[in-house]
Amino acid sequence: MPKVFATIFFVLSLLGPAKMVQAASLPANYPRLANYYLKYYGHVQAADLEGLKKWDLLILPNDYQWAFPDFFASYKKAKPEGLVLAYVYPSMAMSSNINQLWRLAEEKDLWLKDARGNRIEMWPGLYAINITKSEWQKINVNFLRNDLAWDKWDGLMFDTVDAGVSRFNKNGIDIDSDGQADSIDKMDSAWRQGMANLFKK
Hints:
By secondary structure, the chain is α/β, with parallel strands linked by helices. The chain has helices at 46-52, 64-67, 71-78, 101-107, 134-147, 184-200, and strands at residues 6-7, 34-36, 57-61, 83-88, 92-94, 113-114, 121-123, 126-128, 155-158, 173-174. A hairpin with a 2-residue loop joins strand 7 (121-123) and strand 8.
């Protein structure tokens, strides 16, 4: 996959509230090193995009390549050495996304479901896809290779690369699509294997 590298951030906060630096106290000329900017594209204004050009490293929703196609060239003009990573999920989709992942998951019924047959909502509006399904793995890899515009992106930022899925278990998770809730060990083991298979591709 040309120009692609997977960047996974593990953020560990070690500072208590008393030690946290308030943004208002920073000087206006502080170094803009990296911006993890996930603002919904429908709420982004021209001034927001202009402000992003100050940062050396940007992590942006992959939808920005369709919503703001001209931004990337203007960013590189302002920051020739700057890097822009596409924010992606290995196993989730949102209905508001411009990309085709939601539509394909819906058409092919690739959702991760609970024992009642309901889709599992991992965060508001964000639903899990069953990463153990090889069809989804192929769809996702094809999206990364062929749908993302690699003249715009310098790499990828994968979010929620989990070693298991049991933390989202509320009404039982049917990891093998047999209509029955599976044990925590089974669901987590299958999820890990599905994640590994995706990244092998």
